[in-house]
Amino acid sequence: MHTFIMRGVCMVAISRQLQEYFNSLVRQGVFPGCCYCVIDGNNDYIGFVGNKQVYPNIEVNDINTVYDIASLTKVIVTNTLLTKLLASNKIKLDELVSNYIDGFKYKDITIMDLITHSSGLISSLDKNKLAFRSQFFTELERKYNKGSKIIYQDINYIILGFIIEHIYNNSLDQVANDVIFKPLNMVNTCFNPFNKDICAPTEYSSSRGLIKGIVHDEKALFLNGYCGSAGVFSDIFDMTKFAHMVLNNGNLYIPQCYIDLWFKTYINDNGCERGMGWLIGRANRMCYDWCSNEAITHTGFTGTHMTLDRIKKFGIIVLSNRIHPNRSNQKIIDRRQEINNTCYYICRK
Q1: Res 291: pLDDT
Q2: 130 pLDDT above the threshold of 90
Q3: What are φ and ψ of residue 136, in 5° steps?
Q4: Most C-beta atoms within 10 A of its C-beta, which of 18, 125, 176, 218?
């Protein structure tokens, strides 16, 4: 059998095994459905399973479903825009946040402190009593000294989003579209999607009804549907384009020396390693046994995650709406490591 025929047969077998595995996750109630991509070198295994909606009626999933990617916004948009600003010498990572935001009371906190979630800040605002945008940077408390501990907080990236808007003198949604989505040909990625019918719904709540094509995160909702921590909607094809950009060391979009910063550990808090935006390496419970020390990962509350290993040339993207019809389903939280491991071993066994 010719080599290219053997390779084709192997790829078909891998695709079938991946599809069977993700279908098993649907049967186990990990999520109602998902779209996924497993990147193995030059091969992309893209598929979909399950339903995109189960309440109040069932809608079968398809490959073009658009998902609320939640906190993946932090790395797809905010971290990428900051990296572009850094590459063009418009910011420095050790610059003070107070240089950009009037009324920011912690004068020693830098941009990098926010990027790595090591600012020590927690938000004290009541999301049910939001009235002014300024509350996001005035109603803050310092829980730890900066640089002493990692506290994952949306507020860090909301403030970074404000800094980006200040520098560009434009809204974050427009900047993301002009600087990221258009150049990378991410044609189905945006904040506040116009075509809500192709979106997978997230939660059904008594106050908002079925949330479909509208950002789930209440802070982003208050900030006109977009902020530095949440609000992006995307499909599996666009997320795969972004992943290839990273795995190809920036692919001329970002110089490699700046992509390298995403894989460098800046703070290690009892084995939790953070780089520029991402969780790093083997110590991270998402990557575990197969990954190299140059693996990065991030998750989203709605049921999304992306893991990229630059040394192994391997990537895993899962877009799901595990919180549909409600957030009580937390099965994916304990299954993400298994998902990553299983996908890797199916492709590389």
Answers
A1: 86
A2: no
A3: -70, -20
A4: 176
Rg (CA), the chain: 20
Does residue 19 surpass a pLDDT of 90? Answer: yes
- Which residue, among 167, 154, 281, has the nearest Cα to 223 in the 3D structure? 154
pLDDT of 288 reads: 63
CA dist., res. 91 & res. 266, Å (int) = 18
- Hey, what's the torsion of the CAs at 155, 156, 159, 165, to 10 degrees? -120
**Percentage of residues of the chain with pLDDT beyond 90:** 85
Pair 261, 325: CB distance under 8 Å: no
Give the pairing type, strands 279-280 and 232-234: unpaired
Burial classification of residue 17, based on how many CB atoms lie within 10 Å of its CB (0-12 exposed, 13-18 middle, 19 or more buried): middle
pLDDT computed for residue 349 by the predictor: 82
Distance (Å, whole) CA 97 – CA 103:
10
Distance CA 154, CA 158 (A): 6
pLDDT tens, position by position, 69-128: 999 999 999 999 999 999 999 999 999 999 999 989 999 999 999 999 999 999 988 877
CATH number of the domain within which 320 lies: 3.40.710.10
**Cβ 36 vs Cβ 55: under 8 Å:** no
For the beta sheet containing 304-309, the strands, ordered from the edge strand earlier in sequence to the opposite edge, are 59-60, 43-53, 33-40, 314-320, 304-309, 295-300, 279-280, 272-274, 267-269
Task: For residue 263, give its domain range.
Answer: 3-348
58: three-class secondary structure by DSSP: coil
Number of folded domains that form the chain: 1
pLDDT in tens, 233-262: 999 999 999 999 999 999 999 999 999 999
Tokens 């609000």: give the residue: 231
